[in-house]
Amino acid sequence: MQDELKNEPPSEETGQEKEVMPSLEELLRAAERQAAEHHDAWLRAKAETENMRRRAAEDVDKARKFAVENFASELLAVKDSLEAALAAESPSVENLKDGVELTLKQLVAAFGKFSLVDIDPLGDKFDPHLHQAIQMVDSDQPANTVVTVLQKGYRLHDRTLRPALVMVSKGKDA
């Protein structure tokens, strides 16, 4: 009789409940559902990453393409002034000179607005990062002093766009 009790499911009267194990098929279906959910989440994450990469590339392209837009807008006023000077019927030399001076002021203001500054090193010590020496000349100045500026240089923020073309002194004892 004890063997029969062992094989019988526990009754409600004894207060014991039978623990039901899910079948292997149910476990497989649950694992497949979970795998499908993970795969779907992975596909969405991959698509989002691709979208972000594409948007970032577009932003970089736009930034590169339109980087000079504000600077170009400032230069339009300079171009307008030059065209107005050329359109004058019979300008005097004095009027042309005044117009050119005003146009140069506009250009200098536009340069200043965008941190484009002159390198005019007359009397400064030669600096190969800012100057390009094309000749050494006899001078009363100390050696390696800029004595003549043939062409101004320009810097944009901390970067030299064009070094100044200069002549440098050989020094008194050379």
Report what the structure shows.
- This protein has 174 residues and is of the alpha+beta class.
- It has a domain at 116-174: Nucleotide Exchange Factor Grpe, Chain A, domain 2 (Roll).
- The chain is 51% helix and 18% strand.
- It has a 3-stranded antiparallel beta sheet with strand order 1-4-5.
- The longest helix is centred in the N-terminal third of the chain and has 42 residues, at 24-65.
- The radius of gyration is 41 Å and the shape is elongated.
- It starts with a helix and ends in a 5-residue tail after the last strand.
- The mean pLDDT is 88.
Topology of helices and strands:
Blueprint: H1 2-7, H2 24-65, H3 69-87, H4 93-113, E1 116-119, E2 131-137, E3 146-151, E4 153-156, E5 159-162, E6 164-169
Parallel strand pairs: 2-6
Antiparallel strand pairs: 1-4, 3-6, 4-5
Helix pairs in contact: 3-4
The arrangement of helices and strands along the chain is HHHHEEEEEE
Overall mean pLDDT stands at 88
Strand order of the largest sheet: 1-4-5
The CATH class assignment of the domain at 116-174 is Mainly Beta
Task: Provide a quick synopsis of the model.
This protein is of the alpha+beta class and 174 residues long. Helices cover 51% and strands 18% of the residues. It is elongated and about 110 Å long.
Jot down its keywords.
alpha+beta, 4 helices, elongated, three-stranded antiparallel β-sheet
